[in-house]
Queue: 4 jobs
Job 1
Amino acid sequence: MTTPLLDVTGLSRRFGALAAVDDVSFTAEAGRIVSLIGPNGAGKSTIFNLLTGYLPLSRGSVTFRGRRIDGMNTCRIAELGIARAFQIARPFRGLSVRDNVKVGALFGKRDKRGPAIVDEVLALAGLTELAERQAAELTIGQLRKLELGRAFAARPHLLLADEPLAGLVPAESEEILASLKALASRGAGVLLVEHDMPAVMKVSDRVIVLEAGRLIADGRPEDVNRDPRVIEAYLGQEAP
Amino acid sequence: MTALVQTLVNGLLYGGILSIAAVGFSLIFGVMSVINLTHGIFVIGGAYGALMAWSVLGIDPLLSIPPLMLVAFALGWGCQRLVIQPAVERGNPVAALLVTFGFTLIAVNLLTVTFSSSVRSISPSYSFINLRVGDISIDLVRLVAFACGLALIAILGSFLRFSRWGRVIRATALSELGARLCGVDARAVYALTFAVASAFAAASGVLIGMMLPFTPAEEVTWTVYAFIVVTLGGVGSLGGAMLGGLLLGLVSTLTQTYLGAVYTNMVMFLILLATLLVRPNGILGSAFKASR
Amino acid sequence: MARRITILLLAVLLIAALATLPFFLKAFYVRVGLSIFLSAGFAVCWWLLAGFTSYYSFGHTAFVGIGAFAAALALRAVPEAAPALQLAWALGAGLVVAGGIAMIIAWPILRLRGHYFTIAMLAVALVLGEAVAAFPIFGGSTGLALPNLAPMSVRVEAFFYWIALALLAVVLAIAWAISRSRLGYGLAAIREDEDAAQMLGVPTTRFKVVAFVLSGALTGSIGAVYALNLGYITSDSVFRGSLSLEMIVNSLVGGMGSILGPVIGAAVMTGVTKLVLADLLEYHLAITGILIIAVVLLAPDGIVGLWRRRRAREAER
């Protein structure tokens, strides 16, 4: 078996007495969409903060493309090829959509191709028609697309998408899912945190379930769906 | 030894004046997070007001404080409502700062045209009396000004702590949105804050005018001193302004006595810079909304 | 591409046309032009930091003063050199010393954000101004004199007019090049949202330091010219709070959103002050104050912003 894109081992983070993330291990592969699910407070967002270096880890290791990245700073991790799309979009409001994407393209990865791919990324994220608009003028759905587009532009090896569907109408959700799939089909790994279960089950190659900071299941969507522990911990609340 | 004690006494007396001269600036920075460059002009305006009352009407400077505070209150209210509030609503902190700068230019110009740019001072009959305690000599005027300064700070403190409007001001400082959700008219609070701050600035100006010579251009000095006092002590708290003022007064007179008068300002500005770099929230640091 | 060449060509033509003006104009108007170029140069330098990153320095006069005194002291070392060499030497001294000091203070001071950075820069300017006034090497309160470097055959005001114009052109070219570069996009991202920029991989600290040092160094070199033109400098004349404020006011009046903003602002403000208000000297400050308030409240994006809004409205029709 080849080495996975991302290998997380024994990841832990304590906030005082609270173990927000407790000894979690998983992997993510190139070209696959892996979803992290779990009730609120399960530790999903903390995991993203740990992977991007926004928070320091208490214990464990993170290996990305064969390199230890735990302890690196945010900016360095971004340069290595991990991009993050926030749930609450943080666009550069004073810049046009095109310039937002261009910033992503120029800084995600250091190579000469940056500016050349802007149009391609705009198309991939469904932003072509909005390219010249100011980011401050966009709707929530459009902002979410821009957030993804800016992350795509960095040509990441791994994209961390934090609830990209929250608050969107179904048509917008479909567009976002389609562009995530398109990104994965180009060989990038996607780590998805999402509460919309039907969407997760449809789009994911693997699903990881967390509860109270611990990993309780990891497998194909259909298997996870039938796992009694998962049903009890999480899906059970919604099952008839 | 006597020299040191004398220097410390002078420093504390001067520091008390620096404290009262900074509370208005501190209040506005803490509540509205606006750097109020008009501060110094209200201070100097107070001094000129007292000069007029004393030389034209023969009123003792100390007695002119209450009416001058009323005038400054009204002027501050109007200035905030007409000019500063619209700039604050632009959401750009620099817009508010620039507007206060523009207002200051106008005011300095008017003061210069009215009173000329020559140096003025107020010297009531008791201004040359010295008290002696052992080997230490104390200017009566400085002592009186110090006492008045403390009294004014105490008045402002009890207004903020115990009165209904004081509570509303403090609540708005902590969270404008929160206060508005509770039915507070934030604009009225800002206007009130500005008016109160202006009134206390003018009052401190009267005390300063009794102790030190002044010119219209001197307003810059008092804005900058207020800056230093507030940064040193901590934004938005009266305790911070007190502490910052007393410390700065001590530093200022110690430098003057032991290093030389040319270094006084340099040392004060270095302290400002060092505080910003080491402890930007000041010694009693609660930054309120200022640090965005 | 074609558009870029047109703009470049127009710029060269405009500069050439401005350069010929001293041959036609009276000395007074040449001096007005010189004032405009100097204050525009300062404003663009200030804008290099503030416009790109929204770090509003309130003490840029520090770099004017450093450049001025570096030039004055440097010229003492070469009293016999040819004037052209002396000029280059003075400009270089202003550039290098101001840039060097900027580099020393950049790291601590750029950790501060918002108001705190603004006040800290004010403090830097005040400290340096007081230090220069206190230490005898800088001439103390009497100040330092600088030699007259203008050749005999050229009118002094025309000489400095051309130097100031050339420097303004250089500073503008640098600003323009940055705005189209990776650095420029990174700085714009820092201005809009520094944390998000960092997450996207923008090396925020390094970029801010680069912008700060560049801004300080260029201000220093124009400060050297400013000093040469004055011929005689004191701490009060070059470490002057109103110089910092002019840079800010000019940029805001012109518009922060464009490189041309500071230039237009400087032209308007200096022109109004020197030409229109020349007879109203007594009320000069008050009118400046009214103008500042009017611009902030009525045209928050400056003159360039007004013009853009009008164009946008016409485009909709």
Note: Chain C is about 75% helix and 0% strand.
Job 2
Amino acid sequence: MDEELYRRVKAVAALRGIRVKDAFEEALRLWLSVKPEFHALAEEVEREAELNRRAFEKLREELVRSHEGFYAAFAGGKLLGVFPTLEEAAAAIERVGASQGVIEQLSAARRGRAEVELGWSLVEL
Amino acid sequence: MEPGGIVARGYYSSAESPPAPVIPLVVYTPTSRRRVEVEAKVDTGFSGTLLLAFEKYFELGLQLYERAEKASGLVAGGYRVELRVSRGVVELEGLRIPCNIYTTIFARRSLVGRELLNKFKTVLDAPQGAVILEAGHR
């Protein structure tokens, strides 16, 4: 097992006043709670998403130079077009019958990964 | 929207003990071609706008309008989960609000969070079992 991961599990378990064994059981219950068909769906969509992300990264600088502020739409690992509105970009993806799509508003400023607090309501064990 | 005008009426769901505040809302795709009705739990511990149950997110087809970058969800206790981020429109009694919509494979329920709630005056009247969102005064 990844030592750093184990160290973090141990630290959080200590903070919560539970044993590492209980933390593992909790994690396994959570893992089992996800329907198998959801795993399959998530994997398929993620494969497509990865292709679209790569296509976006490859073209990002060129698109920002030529169309800053516009919306770029990607599906099937390809650029579908650049559009003045989100609605038009979304419609372009709907037209091609893709299983996943990426829409990015073109900006020279790179956003870091957004962080969202979730509280506890998300998880039902 | 007039200040004090009611934007949404919810209720306390007895599916949880103690009962939890819930708001019914409608979520649309960015093109408004598809919609889904959702009962979202009011969760002030959630800093985002709307987190949809995984099933609802895909029922609506929101995977078609995702951002390139996923978001990082910080769960109480220090856990992190990856969140898919899409775009949609939330409708509350006729008022339409374009916003980011999140999900994760672990999401079995829908949550409405501070980024949306903070646009309004939120009244949690547990004794009366009522939840009311009102347009705020500026």
Note: Chain B has a mean pLDDT of 91.
Job 3
Amino acid sequence: MAVIRDVMPAFELFQPASVPDAQALLARYGGNAWVLAGGLDSMDWLKDRIKRPQAVIDLSGIEALRGVRQRDDGLEIGAMTTLTDVVGHPVVRERYGILMEAAEVAASPQIRNQGTIGGNVSQDTRCWYYRAGWSCYRAGGNICYADTPESINREHAILEADRCVAVNPSDTAPALIALDAQMVIRRGDEERVIPAEEYFIGPSIDITRMTVLQPGDLLTAIRIPSAWAGASFYFEKIRDRNVWDFALVSVASAMVTEGNTIQRMRVVINGVAARPLRLRAVEDAVRGKTRTEDTAKAAGDLAIQGAQPLKFNAYKVPLMRNLVKRAIRGTEASGAAQLRGYDSQRA
Amino acid sequence: MDIFTWGRSPWGQTILQHISWDLFWASLFAGLAFFVAHASYMYLSPHRKREAEETDAMEAARPELPPKIVRHGAVARLFHWVMAAAMFTLLLTAFLPVVGVKFAWVVWHWSAGLVLTASILFHIVHASFWLDFRSIWVGPSDIPELKAEILRELGHDVPGPKPGKYPLGNRLYHLAIVVAGLAVVATGLLMMKRVRTPLFTREPYMLGDSTWGVTYVTHGLAGVALVGLVIAHVYFAIRPEKRWITRSMIFGRITRREYLEHHDPDRWAVRTGD
């Protein structure tokens, strides 16, 4: 973690009361604006004086961005809804249990009370070389300090590394992709709705961003369709500590079965690349198969194809394989989502 | 407008990183400005056009020349178009992301770079042993031709030297492309050591921070120079009075009339058996 060097640098603080007001500020300041949601990731950046925005736009006063609303086809969750509110919402608990599980294992209770779902999916990577303020690729430079012979890269990527080897830290992101959620983004008078799977981007597309959000964009809501409501879910997060820790690897899946046959499935893995990876090859391979140990093993082996571990993160390969196996088997009690340490490496 | 971007090393040192993308926009603007300025000048200024009778007389005086004359052999043309495809791929993959078109460009970029490198190496060998190597280069002996060309461009009727196989503009352009091309290829090959490819083992510390900075800056400067150079090249390739040259790069040959009209037979001797 970077050393806190000083008090925060000076910036203009705006606390708009409406989405149009926030958009007007974003349009005015463009790339010099910093959007403040729960403030948990933001305060690190600001206190470390790594990010020096001209204006900070605090969304906490916009009531329209809060709350879980039912729609004809599912739910709409305001981007400023806290993770605690997501976890406690009865419809989320009843029909979208995977999201409840993912939100419930994020950080600590205090952080979930303050942290928002919009902030959770939009937070920056935890790569400490990047967060130390060094001029790496992700910071606009020409080197990845985490991918050198001397790097300490135990938490970094094993897939889709392209110059940068940072990983996505969000807990809710894989669950939202598994649920085929839609992200509602506003820019000026335009509103665009994109699949959660496309919201996250890897370094090959844009090495300085984790999401498609550009200066001026505002994530206002997340829509969850009913297509996977009540499916057989599996979520598991492996981390070093039981609370207040980021995932080393996490898996989220939604499965619809008929008898013991898998009709359709979405499976997403996070912590292995700069974006949560939907494992389409696995989904295709298990469709129509019976939910057996053999199917799980084949899926696990398929999932890790192409993995390229760094010096200190080869453990992620068997971890990922076994989490996918468990997602197929569904053997770990859904909702447990607690510290399992390296038992997961033994599947 | 910034020229370079600077960063901070883990030791707190200020390090050169790469060029500012402002230079890309400057090069793009310069290329397009040249295009507009030259096109306007050519449209508005008086230019002497050789009378048809003059060329008729030259043709009549050289009946031994074949009706079609080879200007670019098949191998030379193949090199040119392979290099052109590689160059366009390199420029598009380098600069489309800068203007906001996001895609996975790195693999395409270094792959095209390898094609360009291979084609340049081939061209050096081919030009050295099979072509008239000296015909494309410029030197002090070209000063009279330079003066004559400038005066012609200014509308004067100058009887001075005509080009050999390649007009002076072609040769100066070739020189600029050689400098920019070799710089971009050499630095690009070094930069491939910093990315994952199936060809090299990554070695990001092969050079020091400062040397890497100079490498990236040289690559960037050569890259943005190529933007302007390619714009100029395409512009001249489609200009009406230059299309005979473009056609020769496609089909390989020029007519006897074009040969006599645009070249000095003493400086580019054509075998009558061609």
Note: Chain B has a mean pLDDT of 89.
Job 4
Amino acid sequence: MLTVSNISCVRGHKPLFAPVSFSLQPGQVLHLEGDNGIGKTSLLRIICGLSHADGGEVLWNGSSLSKQHPEVVEAFRAALCYMGHHQSLKDELTAIENLLFDAQIAGRILSYDKAMDALQKMGLKNRAHLPLRVLSQGQKRRTALARLSLTDAKLWVLDEPFVALDTHSLNSLQVILANHVQQGGMLLYTSHQAVKLLKTNGHLVDIRSVQMVAA
Amino acid sequence: MMWQAYWAVVRRDVLLAWRRKSEGLSAVFFFVVVAALFPLGIGPELTVLRNIAPGVLWVGALLSSMLALQRLFEADFGDGTLEQMALSPIAMPLLVGAKMLAHWLVSGLPLVLLAPVLGLQFDLSGDALVTLTFALLLGTPILSLVGGVGAALTLGVRGGGVLLSLLVLPLFVPVLVFGAGAVEAQVSGLGVQAHLSILMAMLLPALFFGPLASAFALRIALE
Amino acid sequence: MNMFRASFWLHYAGPQAFYGLAGRVWPWCAALAAVLGVWGLWLGFMVAPADAQQGEGYRIIFVHVPASWMSMVIYMAMAFWSVLGLTFNTRLSGMMTRALAPTGAMFAFLSLWTGALWGKPMWGTWWVWDARLTSELILFFLYLGYIALTSAIDDQRRGDRAGALIAIVGAINVPIIYFSVKWWNTLHQGASVSLTKSPTMAQVMLWGMLLMAMCFWLYTIALVLYRVRTTILQRESHTAWVQAIVQEIA
């Protein structure tokens, strides 16, 4: 369970946004909203532990992350999957290599077959052994989505995941997200687009919204 | 799990360097060119060249290492891979150490292998060449380990390359002194033990503290 | 307030309180520095006898040696504040370190320059690669590196933390560098003249150097405190207390 308590952030002498608080339980989805430039990306990075907060704290399963206790931080990172503005993919590596290395560096076990399977679901089976350099932008995005479908992290923090996706990929992503949530995962994301996640029983996943406002 | 991640990073970085051949080779070519420039600037007198050889070859190795250092974290910083490493449950210093090992294999080891060949151009004796190789073998990893801190601190900063040199060259001075000193001691018939032991004594703490300090610096850069 | 309580120190770790304290302290340091400086220079240039071997030229030692000392002391102070800053995350530490750097660099440069001025009449060269001068040169580069790095980083906090790390790394390396330069120097049996070696140092000479050292120290404290006050005003410009001060001046 993720708890964000009164997080505030100062950039260039001025606080960016009014203190933000919310909590996220397994199976819940939170949509972080706010105007451009309000600091949505900064907040997500603070939650992940990449940036520092100037006030408040982030708690994972009741333990504060700001105190930097190694076990707590390690457990948090093992449960976290963050996708920011960067693709985090290497152009000179093939799609399959990207997936395999990625998993190993994150300390996860991933078999070759499982990785190929994920690529196939993304329609990249024939491109799996080509360097990412020669793939189209859309195909690269789908490789990133394949990576997402393979992680067993409980908390997904996604910054603008729907940007520049074609319809097919958009649908695939929505399916991946819905599955994740249905299996008890947590999702925190920002997006300018409205998104619908469908459970397998046909009902919509309930998406809560948190509005960020200026300080 | 930890060591699997470690070797994954080493393999990935070496694979990437192999596929981007031009980058790794440019540092090596730089070393060769610098070593050739000195005789051109000073004159072909072998006695003079023999004298300056240890210093010239070491300075060449130093400058070449420094050029290569800029690339240590740059690409990963730019495409978001570094961020993912910072978020991995695997300790970041371990992953950074792996990057440094890969970096040394690609940029440092070639210098070690090439130096004896270049040393021949300076008419160094066989024993001196052996000492030179050994000293570089101990010294070049120190350059990758200590220089990594500078590379991490200057990520994305204006004037990166020159700033990196300014930060890192003073820290390289001890390696230069004892590394070149070892070869000179060999040439003048004095024992090389002391020099090589001191290099080893500098390498061991660097193996531990270099990745730690660099990981800390990388987190500062990622903020 | 009782000086032996942690609360005393924590209170002054805040920019506003420190601003007040620094404001009261620096004028006294400056005045005392001026007095000691005049006294020290008088001792050095007027009272101390001419050296048997080096004549009048040796008098530059009264500036050179204290300047070298200060360049070392200031770097250690920078490392101290850096450790404090990274451990306790205080804003003031970064400001103090940044304020110390230019003065430290100035003393290092002064030491090199006076070393050269001394060298010319003594050995006929403007520069000599002895262990101390060479180490001083490398220390000067370490200062320049810190200043360059902190100036190049736009984000203040990142600049403070990056600078703190390089200052600490530099400080750890200073003894290693000094040791290696000394080794290098004895190995090559270059100029083995020690710029501070004097078979007998007359009492008065020692006094002169000590007074100059204290003068430089107090000068540094005064200047750094003054500089930090300006930095505090700049960085805390969004707070009410700073805006009140600015309005008062306006």
Note: Chain B has one domain: 2-222.
